[in-house]
Specification:
With 101 residues, the protein is mainly α. Helix content is 95%, strand content 0%. The chain contains one helix and no strands. It is rod-shaped, with a radius of gyration of 43 Å. The protein starts with a helix and ends with a helix.
């Protein structure tokens, strides 16, 4: 009879241990799932920031290209105006140095 009593106690303890293990496994799985969701959210945020950064980079590259074209046009205009100024200066110089009839 004593043996039977010990056997019941041992089975109850075994069931309690298994129950605790199950609860721990469920809690660990829940923590892991929450961690995975958190990481997915952070990854999505990072990808969104990266997409915004790439869009901004593309916009800045476009603006830089436009500015380079503008500078090229300004350099062409500057060279043309410098040449015209020199031509006009030479013309005025010739007119002032020529004898008056």
């Amino acid at each position: 009879m004593c043996y039977h009593h010990e056997e019941e106690w041992s089975e109850d303890e075994n069931r309690g241990t298994q129950s605790r293990r199950r609860r721990l496994a469920i809690a660990n799985a829940a923590r892991s799932a929450a961690l995975v969701e958190n990481l997915r959210g952070r990854l999505a945020e990072t990808e969104a920031r990266l997409a915004r950064a790439r869009a901004r980079e593309a916009e800045l590259s476009r603006q830089l290209h436009e500015m380079k074209r503008f500078v090229s046009v300004m350099e062409i205009l500057e060279a043309y105006l410098n040449r015209r100024f020199a031509e006009q200066r030479d013309l005025v110089s010739r007119l002032l140095s020529s004898p008056v009839p």
